[in-house]
Batch of 2 targets.
Target 1
Amino acid sequence: MTYTYDGTFIGFLSVIFETYRLKQAPENIITESEHQPGLFGSVLFVPTQPDNAARVVKGLNKRCGDGSKRFMYHCFLSEQSRIEMMLYGLVALAVESKENVLENFREPVIRQLHRIERQMHREVHRMHAFVRFQKNQDELYVAFISPDFNVLPLLEPHFRSRYPAMRWLIYDTKRHYGLYYESPSARFVTLEDNTHRIVSEQMLTSDESEYQRLWQTYFESVDIPERRNLKLHLQHVPRRYWKYLIEKHPD
């Protein structure tokens, strides 16, 4: 049986509940958008049921501790191939075991999930360091990102705490959605095509353009060619982030 769902984490947990209600383990779990008729044999779409998802979380917390939902959510956002089946494997082990399976590194799937969670953790911290806001003429601070993993939902606490009085938007150009914050709340948004126009040279405030030029000048002034270590620099600031760093785009 292939189970499909709406692509949300709550929807995925609803699938987990349904597999146990039906007592039918999944051959695969995919999003409804991934489903191609005729390719997966027997298919069942599972609607999102928050109450059922909450029961799954309650059971996991009892077996694996209160951090199990957060761990699964971080792994789920990684978008790794067959991540749903890996997480189902975790749940199946938890149901069968009397110990906390998250600490059972003898199991290959547990080792793999911990590796994925560490990758997510590193990517979140890189976003904390590399996000660069630019203020446009609408007094909106905008930053573009294209992370390897879908970490945008995990960025709100850091930036809400750091910039509580600002109106800001962090937009993931790879996944085509953003996180918009205006005190006291934040929400996910999508924009029309050509999103970069909202921070084009013509849309920036005059002081923002000047600050960018000063920032670029500063980095040029502290750069000592004789002391450059590109290999070390790339370890700390991978090249894939450069296109969104103002200091990497001198006039």
Note: Residues 201-212, 214-219 have pLDDT under 50 and may be disordered.
Target 2
Amino acid sequence: MLSIAHLTSAHPRRDTRIFVKQCRTLARQGYKVTLVVADGLGDERDSGVHITDVGHHPGRLGRMLLSTRRVLQRARLIDADVYHLHDPELIPIGLRLKRQGKIVIFDAHEDLPLQILSKPYLAPSLRGLLASTCAAYERHACRRFDAIVAATPFIRDKFLQINPNTVDVNNYPMPAEFDADAPWGEKQQEVCYVGGLSAMRGIGELVNAAQLLQSPARITVAGRFSEETLENALSALPGWQRLNRPGHLDRDGVCALMARSLAGLVTLHPEPNYLEALPVKMFEYMAAGIPVIASDIPLWHVIIQSNQCGVCVDPFDPAAIAAAIDYFVRHPHIARRMGRNGRRAILEKYNWPGEAEKLIRLYQELQAPAGNRRIADRHGASG
């Protein structure tokens, strides 16, 4: 049986996609799975996965220079059969491991060039230059890897032009994790947003929407601010007092919050890297059996309207966001019906067990002798 090392220098050790879904799925299949992290929390074993820590280096530069070097050193020490990389900054490590005859998979969580184009702290001219440089290097490196795992069909289609052994493994929820049977009568007059708190993710509009609410509902924002200056500025606004701010929640806390909420918010701005994204939290709200209030991004609009599981609004319009919240507070029977529709869609198509099958099939093919490997038809519809 293959020994597998998942490598990350930027993600937390219990990242939902990396550890909870992929590593634990592979460990249950009998693979020897090691997860290399760089968080300074030490080594441990969890759910059949050996987690090994190379230590934490603060700051983006320290992480990219020092943490990546230590990840490479630990990766060589582990001497696994397969290395599964989860951060673009680890691509050079992947090339070095390939030169040593290892099987290397790159997991594209995001479209990196599009992500760079959305960085507000970069000058527009610099964004374009960096994005095109990264795209060229990505093409150079990823055609040399044994496989690419993409987090969305959009990213899959891009990488299929670079490496034919590309499969989308979508970050869909595990239905059993969420309590979709919480009695609707016990719901709080509360809607939730779970995720990072930044201007591009619409936190400013949520604060202003809170001020405009006509119902007694409150908005709970569970996550960390990307910038202290943004938090300080928003805390001076009137709507701030109508927010619940529990900070970052663990998985149990997230599930409990969704179980008591009337609806879930995902009103991100239509930045280039969001236009073809599949927000994890949107599907988690659906899994929890609550309706979604989402940005009117075309892809999201199709998903929500085709499944009748929520409403889409202009993410720049606090009044529209507030009106959607008030609507679900005043029409709980509609909220409940849409929540059930969303849960049904998760059970039928947008779920992790279906994605896990694609991941397992990829590893089974990589385990076959090189001359016998086949690229299966994994590139069809994925929900």
Note: Residues 175-348 form a domain with the Rossmann fold fold (CATH 3.40.50.2000).
